[in-house]
Design brief:
Layout: E1 3-4, H1 12-26, H2 29-39, H3 46-56, H4 64-76, H5 83-92, H6 114-132, H7 139-149, H8 169-178, H9 185-205, E2 207-208, H10 214-223, H11 229-241, H12 256-269, H13 273-316, H14 323-333, H15 343-356, H16 361-374, H17 383-394, H18 397-400, H19 402-411, H20 418-431, H21 436-439, H22 448-456, H23 464-469, H24 471-485, H25 498-502, E3 511-514, E4 517-520
Antiparallel strand pairs: 1-2, 3-4
Helix pairs in contact: 1-12, 1-13, 2-3, 2-4, 2-13, 4-5, 4-6, 6-7, 6-8, 8-9, 8-10, 9-10, 10-11, 10-12, 13-14, 14-15, 14-20, 16-17, 16-19, 17-19, 19-20
């Protein structure tokens, strides 16, 4: 498999900023914690604090791969409270000295057998202890011996791919970085020459058969002074060309682990720590501002929504107010495409409320599941959602997880979509008094206004046109951000959509004139579109 590399106009600074932005929004908790530590910021979101508490109390229920990656990522940031992860890894080391995890979902691991996965995890552990200054002895020395036993007589690591003759550039490069003191000088020079020829071939052909290894190959050659300035710039441009416009690296899919590795490799090759720290600090300041103003915005959002629901009753001239029907109509009007006719959906749901008349959340979950399975299933082609709903209903999950049942029931409606499910669940959080144990499971709906403000603040990297057309693509990014800032009520992030409605329209964005003077948007000093100087506002 050879991957063609496109020409990229991005600079290394822009590539670093995009990668940081992607990791600080969609990355795992340990990616975010590492970057916050590296940036020296004092702001740590609630979701990251929960992770830190679980890590400190040794209550992380994760596999060997996650432990090795947590150890590797946090050791790169110099996070001091990570050594207990090493003790847990000691317990999981195999008799042959390696570490292995069979439940790994990374795109480049699809090309590897168990040996390739084990060698990568073992190298991550050894690179981490080397970074932390831990002496390599005892069990760690066993890991070093296991790596050398897996090495081919010609000095490289082979047979880790499906094709037995292919040598593994990534493992060979990483091994040279950390096992330099253990490798014979003649063999080291020969291996570096092989890596140099491989990199030169990639640059000349503008294609790469092992694109995930490119960052490591550049780094090991750079640290051994085997690249001149021209070769180094060409190699870096090639690595940046493999980065997506959203900021991540990945071959078959988004790969956050590879994104973090390439970010660290770029920082090791070029001294751009100032750019890294500036971007981390900027994003941390934006997130801190969101946390500080969200309650006031959310209060305004609740008033706005309640008024909107009352207007729905007047507009539809119904005799009896039904909170579930009004919430559904409100969600439909904000979720369907313009060309879609909302009346069939609303009629189906109205028939349900007239027949069952639900009163509580649990009653709603039970009755809508029955209604969908009995009536809606006849006209719906959403067979997957219907199958999950039937399973949940038979397991009586409407008692323990009513929101999950309601979500699958709405998803089974014809012409429904994920945005409708999220928006309806949010409307229920306003219209009903939902128990605390379920409130944290309500997602944050995503609309054009929310996308607009998050893009302006530089918190999401999905291009605006893709974000508007592909709801599921931007939804994952926003949900990760919402759970990081508000783990107990992620839907609160939706209150940010009030900012474009109130501040971003009109001739003076970010500024509103009033009788008492100018009123500024709470994010005016963090927004690149602020033009207050033109009207005399500092």
């Amino acid at each position: 498999m050879r991957v063609k590399v496109r020409e990229s106009s991005k600079s290394i600074v822009e590539a670093i900023r995009l990668a940081v932005r992607r990791l600080l929004v969609k990355g795992r908790s340990y990616h975010k914690l590492a970057l916050y530590v590296m940036g020296g910021t004092k702001f740590i979101p609630k979701g990251i604090k929960l992770f830190m508490n679980r890590l400190g109390s040794n209550k992380l229920d994760v596999g060997v791969f996650d432990l090795s990656r947590i150890f590797f990522v946090l050791s790169n940031a110099g996070y001091s409270e990570v050594r207990n992860v090493l003790f847990n890894l000691y317990k999981l080391q195999l008799e042959n000295g390696l570490w292995i995890d069979y439940d790994v979902n990374l795109d480049f691991f699809r090309l590897l057998n168990d040996k390739g996965i084990a060698l990568r995890m073992t190298l991550d552990v050894l690179m981490s202890v080397n970074k932390l200054g831990i002496p390599i002895d005892g069990k760690l020395k066993r890991a070093v011996d296991a790596l050398f036993r897996a090495r081919s007589p010609d000095g490289v690591w082979r047979r880790t791919f499906t094709r037995s003759k292919t040598w593994d550039v990534e493992i060979t490069s990483k091994a040279l970085l950390i096992l330099n003191d253990y490798i014979d000088e003649l063999m080291r020079v020969r291996t570096l020459d092989l890596i140099s020829k491989w990199l030169s071939s990639c640059i000349i052909t503008r294609s790469c058969d092992q694109p995930w290894a490119l960052g490591w190959a550049i780094r090991v050659l750079y640290e051994n002074n085997l690249l001149n300035e021209k070769q180094l710039n060409e190699a870096i441009n090639m690595l940046i060309g493999l980065q997506s416009n959203s900021g991540y690296w990945g071959i078959f899919e988004e790969n956050l682990e590879l994104t973090f590795d390439n970010l660290m490799n770029l920082l090791a090759i070029k001294d751009h720590e100032k750019s890294l720290m500036n971007e981390i600090s900027r994003i941390a300041n934006v997130k801190a501002r969101i946390v500080s103003v969200i309650n006031e915005l959310y209060s305004d959002m609740v008033d706005y929504l309640k008024e909107d629901l009352v207007n729905l009753t007047k507009r539809n001239t119904v005799r009896e107010t039904n909170v579930f029907r009004n919430a559904f109509i409100w969600a439909v009007e904000r979720s369907l495409f313009r060309k879609q006719d909302p009346r069939p959906l609303i009629e189906l749901f109205s028939n349900y409320t007239e027949e069952y008349r639900p009163k509580t959340l649990y009653d709603h979950a039970y009755t809508i599941a029955r209604y969908v399975l009995d009536k809606v299933a006849e006209v719906s082609n959403r067979h997957v959602a219907l199958g999950w709903l039937l399973r949940y209903f038979k397991l009586n999950l409407w008692r323990s997880a009513p929101l999950l049942v309601i979500e699958k029931a709405i998803a089974a409606f014809p012409n429904s979509n994920q945005k409708l499910c999220d928006t309806y669940m949010f409307a229920l959080s306003i219209a009903l008094n939902i128990p605390k144990e379920h409130i944290r499971k309500i997602p944050c709906p995503v609309d054009k206004n929310l996308i607009e403000i998050l893009r302006k603040l530089g918190l999401i990297t999905t291009p605006i046109m893709i974000a508007i057309k592909n709801y599921n693509k931007v939804r994952d990014e926003v949900q990760m951000l919402a759970k990081e800032l508000f783990p107990n009520s992620p839907f609160k992030l939706y209150a940010l959509s009030m900012i474009p409605r109130r501040w971003c329209r009109g001739p003076t964005p970010c500024v509103k004139p009033s009788r008492k003077g100018y009123v500024l948007c709470p994010f005016h000093d963090l927004c690149p579109y602020f033009k207050g100087d033109s009207i005399g506002v500092n």
